[in-house]
């Protein structure tokens, strides 16, 4: 734990301001970050946290203000300047190369060479040296795609230590971790603070984790610094009130429904992928929201990717919209009204295209003439309608989709999906990962609107059990590729569901 003696200032910013066209992204922000301290940054999507961190890492140059490292003013012209000053950041979206080993990923871009060739022995030695310095045990000689999500995140952090930083910025580091992986990961972060004396900036929308790990909490809202407080002097309610604009957190109401005679939109019995057959008995009815819960790698995503034709299938026993299917293709399933939003948001977008094109590409038939000419004004109006309806924050409709925050990319993807005329079943894979509390509640309200008012069906895949219990009519629990338990809303039991997800009652309820 930090003490008065070891809390030495390592990073200080004074009056940092950043403006974009029509947007004041950061307004006159002054903060201090100390060694031996975990300092959490909280705020809604668009509050200014990302812009602030991009100025600290040299991605953006502040329009006004100063940055001091170890008491010395430094102007970052590029990310390399920030790294050289001892500031390193691990982003929410992983940047690992799956087929490369942990050691190769750690040294990627900085590979030692011998005689002009990459020196593999030196790579291993360097990676092991960093691992040893951090005091952790993790395999470095296997492809990272074979590691769990928690281990992959630790590889990212080891890579961030290649330049021996004194400040580490972690952006939503637990967003893709399973429940069993979070606490060991937080213990690792605490060890970086306690053993190495680092200043750690921890960005998260999960308040339980913020309060479990923080020494100091700072709240941003609308590009402004609202407050900074020691954790034990700021209640969670006070923190939430500081973060959320009036009226943004919605009350979720799940009406009691009788699905006995409801139309079955999707019925699955078995799916086969990766050479293995999986038992997945489930029914998704018209007007129903079904939650999929399980640890990372339990088969939730794999099952729906197989049914949706995204993942290569070895066969399946599935009925969709009254039609028995054994093999599928993505385009075929979309035409049937099956829409899946990918877990990795960027996989659900067209990265090289504008915000407008990302919306309109799914509606070419509606927005073009029979001769194939696009109605430009109609496209613009349609795209703006989707953006306004889903409260997407953007600078220009022509900007690249990748320039939006992760939460706003997700709003675009979900917003365009629910506008499809033939939509029957919407599969949302981790739709709220990395979102703030207000944005999450908007997703929950949208799900309930779809099932209650539009009579659509939704499958909600999430690693956060509480949001499934809040939003869904039914819950399926996955373990080792199979559905091992199913619960109606009246049967929800958090303790038992967690036990099922860890294999406690495999096969008993289904």
Task: Name the CATH architecture of the largest domain.
Answer: 3-Layer(aba) Sandwich
- By CATH, the superfamily of the largest domain comes out as P-loop containing nucleotide triphosphate hydrolases
CATH topology label of the largest domain: Rossmann fold
Strand content: 25-35%
Helix content: 25-40%
DSSP strand count: 22
- The average pLDDT score comes to 88
Per CATH, the class of the largest domain reads Alpha Beta
Q: Give the total of domains.
A: 3
Helix/strand-derived category reads alpha/beta
Q: Between the first and last Cα atoms, what is the distance in angstroms?
A: 47 Å
Radius of gyration: 24 Å
How would a crystallographer describe the biggest sheet? 6 strands, mixed
Total number of helices: 17
Keywords: ATP-binding, Nucleotide-binding, Repeat, Transport
Protein name: Sugar ABC transporter ATP-binding protein
Organism: Porcincola intestinalis
InterPro entries: AAA+_ATPase (IPR003593), ABC_carbohydrate_import_ATPase (IPR050107), ABC_transporter-like_ATP-bd (IPR003439), ABC_transporter-like_CS (IPR017871), P-loop_NTPase (IPR027417)
